Amino acid sequence: MPQEHSVAVVVIHGMGSQGDMPQGENEVSFSADLYRGLRSRIGEARFDRLVGWREIFWADILQSRQQEYIDDALAGEARWMKTREFVMHRLADAAAYRFEPNANAFVYPAIHARVRAAIAHLETVTGGEAPLIVLAHSLGGHIMSNYIWDIQHGHADAPTPFQRLETMAGMVTFGCNIPIFTFAYPRDAIKAIARPGARIPQGRELTPWWLSFNDRDDPLGMPLRFAGDGYKALYEAGELREAWINTGNIFTSWNPASHNGYWKDADFQRPVAEMIENAMQIGPVA
Known about the structure:
The chain has helices at residues 32-42, 44-50, 60-74, 81-96, 107-126, 139-152, 229-236, 266-280; strands at 7-12, 51-56, 132-137, 168-174, 210-214, 240-244. With 286 residues, it is an alpha/beta fold. The radius of gyration is 19 Å and the shape is globular. The two termini are 22 Å apart. This is Alpha/beta hydrolase family protein. InterPro entries: AB_hydrolase_fold.
C-alpha cells in the first residue's frame, strides 16, 4: 500500500448569515457536518493523523452592517421581512463583494485577508509541504477563484510557496454561483484560473483538479462550463468535472433550501473524501 502523507484542507462558506463573530482559528463551526462526515468515511484515526482542517469565516464583515440597516430602516415598517432578510444576507453579500480600486473599498480586501490568514495558519499546522485542498460553498467559490487569480497574476503578496498555492492540489466548489459574475463580459473574454500547484511533481497531479457540484433544485448553484470560454476550455481539457447531485433531506431536497444541503449529503461527501484520499498519495511537495 502506498505511503500516505498529510493533506491540508481549507473550507470557506458562502453567502448568508453564518453568525456575528468568527470562531476560534482551530474550531470547526459552519463546516461541522461535512467535517464529521468525511472523518467517518476516511476513518477517524487516519483523518486526525493526516488531515489538517481549517475554516475561512468572513460573514461578520458584512453581517453587522446589513443587520444595522434592517433594524434601522425595515424592522416594524416593511413587510415580507423574512424575504427581505434573505435578500440582505445573501444577495447583498454578492453585491458587496467586488474589487474596487479606491481607498474606501474594504469588503474585498477584508475578506481576502481572512483567506490569507487561514491559509497561513494552516501552513503552521500541516507544514509547508502538504498538498492543499480547497472546499468552497456558494459565493465562497467566487471568493477563492478571485483569490487564486490574484495570487497567480501578482496582485497579492504571499511569502511562502504554500501561501502562494504552489502546493494546491485541488478544489471543490458546491452550490457555486461564479457564472453570475461573468455576464458583464462577452463569452470569449471570460477567463478561468489556471491549475495551481506548480510544485506538485509531474505525474502526481490530481485530474480533474476542480470538481463542481450543484443540485438541480438549488437556484444559487450553476454549472461553470457554459459561463465562458475559459471554463469551457478547462472542462474540455479534463481539468474541471461537473455533476448534478441531489442534496438535502425529505424537507429540503426538492426546493431552494437544498442550497444548504451539501454539507451533510452522502453524494457530495463521497467524491470529496476521494479527492482528499488521492491527495494523501501525492506526498510532501518540495
